[in-house]
Design a protein that fits this description.
The structure is a single chain. The protein has 110 residues and is mainly beta. It has one helix at 71-74; strands spanning 2-4, 12-13, 18-22, 26-27, 30-31, 36-43, 48-57, 65-69, 82-90, 96-106. It has an eight-stranded mixed β-sheet. A two-stranded antiparallel ribbon has the order 4-5. The longest helix is centred in the middle third of the chain and has 4 residues, at 71-74. The model has no long low-confidence stretch (mean pLDDT 91).
Length: 110
């Protein structure tokens, strides 16, 4: 299930691969293609869920990065429970942007 947004409400799909996008990563008016981007899913209490995921630059895009929260990790989520993912984007210059996506876990089709 694709998830995309910058600080937006999202849904985490239980038991499915969740593809997460960072769209239009820009620094100094230029789209970034060489940033280091990673994300960590957490409970609202701040407890890590699963491992940190690494995002890859989408070739030919305008600053788009893609990461996948695995179906194995997503299988551990509790229905209607809120989770957030802090996504850290670090440019080659060392500048850092953190994006938070937050929302409940649901079953696909709910």
């Amino acid at each position: 299930m694709p998830i995309s947004g910058n600080g937006k409400l999202v849904y985490w799909y239980i038991g499915s691969d969740n593809t997460v996008y960072v769209n239009g990563l820009i620094l100094d008016s230029a789209y970034q293609s060489t940033a280091t981007v990673s994300g960590q899913l957490k409970t609202t209490a701040g407890v890590n869920v699963g491992s940190t995921i690494t995002f890859s630059y989408v070739t030919g895009s305008s600053g788009q990065y893609k990461g996948i929260l695995s179906d194995t990790t997503a299988a551990t989520l509790t229905r209607n429970t809120e989770y957030w993912m802090d996504i850290t984007c670090t440019a080659q210059s060392g500048e850092v942007l953190v994006i938070r996506l937050q929302g409940p876990a649901i079953y696909a089709g709910s």
